[in-house]
Amino acid sequence: MVNIAKNSNETSLKSAALIAGLSLLVMVIFAPYAEMYVFPKLIVRFQPTETAKNIIENKPLFISGIFAYLITLIGDLVLTWALYILLKPVRKNLSLLTAWFRLVYTVIALVALNNVITSFRMLTTPDYLNFMTQDQVNINAMIYLSVFKNHWYFGMIFFAVHLLLLGFLVIKSVYIPRILGILLIITGIGYLLTSLRPYLFPAINIDFAMFTFFGEIVFMLWLLIRGHKITEVH
């Protein structure tokens, strides 16, 4: 148990750890629902007609996927703030920079999500048929869905840098186990390689993040289970 001095008007490290853990938990629940269930179920790659048919016939499911992404990104914003508070005692300026990298990623992801909304509106708003055929609408909707993924993965570069900096801060802290920082850095390297793969080595079809994602999960569990052990001296 480590004692960290704090101002009585500031959010405690204990509270920040709990908020960060809960935010990660929300994201772990909602992001996979959209990413691994809703979208794979409805979106058929390079098949705009079939994809359009699936979305139109399953509007509530598709909308639930959109809101699952939105809730995830709201969780990202809360997490960004909580992690800044949690690691500010280590190095305030670096903690702020770490938060900015995650914030930039979240903003890019929010902008990317607008492409999904545009795709849905194109498929469900008859007005588009006044100047495009149904096939053209379907193709454009598919393009917007692809743009969503392209933008999101580009934003992951900033997310990866955030994890690398976060891992460094955790290692330098005296109140969070160093092993968690190492795991976060490994996770960040995986996301960075996955994000840069299309540009640097497109011939290699490997999702490195699939093998390194566990760092954030372990960090979340520690925050929820052991984070309350961090106490402050007034």
Based on the model shown, name its key terms.
mainly alpha; two-stranded parallel sheet; disordered N terminus; 8 helices; single chain; 234 residues
Q: How would you describe this protein?
A:
This protein is an all-alpha fold and 234 residues long. The protein has one domain. It is 77% helix and 3% strand. The protein has 8 helices and 2 strands; from the N terminus they run E-H-H-H-H-H-H-H-H-E. A two-stranded parallel sheet has the order 1-2. Helix 1 packs across helix 8, helix 3 runs antiparallel to helix 4 and helix 4 packs antiparallel against helix 5. The chain is elongated. The two termini are 16 Å apart. The relative contact order is 0.15. The N terminus is likely disordered.
Brief rundown of the structure:
With 234 residues, the chain is mainly α. The protein has one domain (3-233).
Q: How are the strands of the biggest sheet laid out side by side?
A: 1-2
Q: What is the domain tally?
A: 1
Which structural class do you get from the secondary structure elements? Answer: mainly alpha
SS summary, helix count:
8
Kindly state the mean pLDDT as a whole number? 91
Biggest sheet: strands, sense, closure?
2 strands, parallel
The beta-strand count equals: 2
Shape: elongated
Question: Helical content, roughly?
Answer: over 70%
Low-pLDDT ranges? 1-6
Radius of gyration: 20 Å
Order of helices and strands: EHHHHHHHHE
- Kindly estimate the percentage of residues that lie in beta strands according to DSSP: under 5%
Beginning-to-end CA distance, first to last residue: 16 Å
- Assembly type: single chain
